[in-house]
Write a structure and sequence with these properties.
The complex is a heterodimer of chains A (about 250) and B (about 200).
Chain A (H helix, E strand, L loop, with lengths): L9 E11 L4 E8 L10 E7 L5 E7 L10 E6 L7 H6 L6 E8 L13 E6 L3 H14 L5 E7 L8 H9 L4 E7 L16 H9 L7 E6 L1 H13 L7 E5 L3
Parallel strand pairs in A: 7-8, 7-10, 8-9, 10-11
Antiparallel strand pairs in A: 1-2, 1-6, 2-5, 3-4, 3-6
Chain B lengths: L13 H4 L7 E2 L20 E6 L2 E7 H5 L4 E8 L4 E12 H8 L7 E6 L4 E5 L9 E6 L2 E2 L9 E3 L12 E7 L29
The chains are: A alpha/beta (about 250), B mainly beta (about 200).
Chain lengths: ~250, ~200
């Protein structure tokens, strides 16, 4: 291992576990040399270095709860024309060391002290930082009511599906609303269409009172549509925080 | 630290390499990033205010602002999320021309750009003048779309692109270097892509 100067924000992290989540999304657990505690919703930057010194870096949201232990989980979607995600899917193995930096981000985060109820809206792998919030809430304070609206193309692309349905079945104040855009709904309470204001209004109605905060993450097109849908359902724009992949 | 098994085919050709700051990659599209919902600002409701602290110096409505001298800038832009886009063509009003129309010399060394959605970002005044920055009204010859910051956005292309505030509605001279929205949330006070000043812990 190359020794980093102590002031470098980059550090080596060892991949300790790899688990395929869906056909296109795989989770990687990293144990950083210098462990840190993140906030739910934060991300890390990952840096790959080729033998000639060329570097590629990307940001990935953390899926694990801050108190989970066992390293941080990044759920990485394979982008066929990508540069970094195909490396993780095709090359990276348990025991490899990867450089990362973090935790990063001070806006798209939810802490217990932020309170609730909260509405989370994720499209595809946009659910990843929301999953950290759901897990944090479940481990820390189940009194905070949550509605998660999760839009995926098909049932088999619902990341964290078993875990989310298991949490929904507890009826402890966490509400899962799945919507599939290319398949019929599988559960009676779910939808089979793109997110819209009526869907958001019905999600908000599952909460005991109006949401204090809303978090929306996904592609730009998804976030624009979902944020507009929330506003259409009466959620004030200033309570909505967004995170966009950018493309 | 060399990463086992990483041999990118994405390495830029050497003639463009010199235009890509460290840690950035070349993007052909035009990604959209923002902290909240996209505000739809109608030009009839639009205004731009120049302020010294809380005190307004001059305010322009949409027609008055569009009547100011218009300039074009085609520049490479660099987002802190690591994409760089070459040759983005903008048209708008140079900050120099805004100050000239207001009849002022900049009274302080620091400026906050302010936006309709409550966003703000700090830029040293010297980075806004002498042809370095504009309030852009057109992109590729057409009105800037709302998701890219229309009707008007700041353009400070030599700094990371979060400094180029979308939906801009004013500039405020400040006595000290006051952090804006992202600068209060862990991002760098200056944001020079060539020195890779992404986060507050970067030198």
């Amino acid at each position: 291992m190359s020794a980093e100067p102590s002031q470098s924000p980059w550090q080596a992290a060892t991949i300790t576990r790899i688990e395929k989540r869906t056909p296109r999304v795989t989770s990687f657990w990293f144990q950083p040399l210098r462990p840190f505690t993140h906030l739910a919703g934060q991300h890390v930057d990952v840096r790959l270095t080729a033998p000639d010194g060329y570097q590629a870096r990307r940001s990935y949201s953390i899926a694990s709860a801050p108190e989970a232990g066992g390293g941080i989980e990044l759920a990485i979607e394979r982008l066929d024309d990508g540069e970094v995600s195909p490396f993780f899917h095709d090359v990276a193995a348990v025991g490899d060391e990867i450089e990362l930096r973090g935790p990063l981000g001070g806006h798209f985060i939810w802490e217990e002290s932020d309170g609730g109820p909260i509405v989370l809206v994720g499209g595809g792998s946009g659910v990843v930082p929301l999953m950290a919030m759901v897990r944090h809430r479940t481990l820390r304070n189940k009194a905070v009511p949550v509605a998660l609206v999760f839009s995926a193309r098909i049932w088999d692309e619902v990341i964290f599906r078993d875990e989310l349905i298991g949490l929904d079945d507890r009826l402890d104040g966490f509400n899962l609303v799945l919507t599939l855009t290319r398949e019929p709904a599988r559960r009676p309470s779910d939808y089979s269409r793109r997110v819209d204001a009526r869907m958001m209004a019905q999600a908000v109605e599952r909460l005991p009172k109006a949401p204090k905060l809303a978090y929306v993450c996904g592609s730009n097109a998804f976030v624009s549509a979902a944020a507009d849908a929330l506003i259409g359902a009466g959620v004030p724009a200033e309570t909505i925080r967004t995170e966009r992949y950018g493309v | 630290m060399v990463t086992r098994g990483f041999f990118s085919g994405r390495r830029p050709p050497s003639d463009t390499d010199a235009r890509i700051p460290p840690g950035q990659y070349l993007e052909q599209g035009f990604p959209v990033l923002s902290a909240g919902p996209t505000p739809r600002v109608r030009t009839e409701d639009w205004s731009f205010t120049l302020k010294h602290g809380p005190k307004p110096i001059k305010k322009w409505n949409w027609a008055e602002f569009n009547a100011l001298p218009q300039s074009k800038m085609t520049r490479d832009i660099h987002c802190v999320t690591a994409w760089t886009k070459f040759n983005t063509p903008w048209q708008g009003v140079m900050i120099d021309d805004i100050f000239a129309d207001a009849g002022i010399e900049p009274p302080t060394a620091y400026t906050l750009a302010l936006s309709f959605d409550g966003y703000s970002t700090n830029v040293p005044t010297k980075d806004l003048v002498t042809g370095k920055a504009m309030v852009a009204l057109l992109y590729e010859g057409k009105p800037i779309t709302p998701d890219h910051g229309g009707p008007a956005r700041l353009l400070v292309p030599h700094l990371y692109f979060w400094k180029s505030a979308k939906w801009v509605n004013g500039l405020q001279f400040t006595e000290r270097d006051e952090p804006g929205f992202w600068e209060l949330r862990g991002y760098h006070m200056y944001g020079d892509p060539w020195r890779e000043q992404r986060y507050s812990s970067d030198p």
